[in-house]
Amino acid sequence: MRNDREGCLVQHSTSQLATPFQRGFKGSVFFVLDSVAVTVMGGAYWVLIATLLEPREVGLVATTTGVATIAWMLSALDLRQSLAKLVAEYRVSERLGMARRTLTKGLPIADASGALTCVVLLISSNHLADAIHHEPDLAPPLAIGAVSIPFQVIVSALNGAY
After folding, report:
1. Which residues partner with 9 through β-bridges?
2. Distance of alpha carbon 96 from alpha carbon 135, whole angstroms
3. Largest CA-CA distance found in the chain, in angstroms, rounded
């Protein structure tokens, strides 16, 4: 606590005393921790898949993962980085209304993009499996991957914003 000009005691929280650099650094640490956690979980996933499945099935899973990842990256429209950058800038400059408005405008875009990608991949999963990969057993995993894309896009957008 300290005295202000009128002689009243004013209490400041530590968040008000933190510089914009300190608040930005704290957000960067969360991004690094997120990347480390995702990498560890991805490694554990592939070790589990390789242990439980036959080599042919591991190939199907790898192909499905590759196609779903490309579709997710295309449908995400780089919203994670864009929302993270804008929301962080607005929070540091203490324009919380703009940060909130950015989220309310960005999330419907993410919804529409993820849903459109899901529908396109669902429709084309049989063609991808038969004509391109010559593996009809690939169609059901591709369809499952397609259904997961809208959720991945939303989680990614929110993850970048918070």
Report:
1. 3
2. 51
3. 80
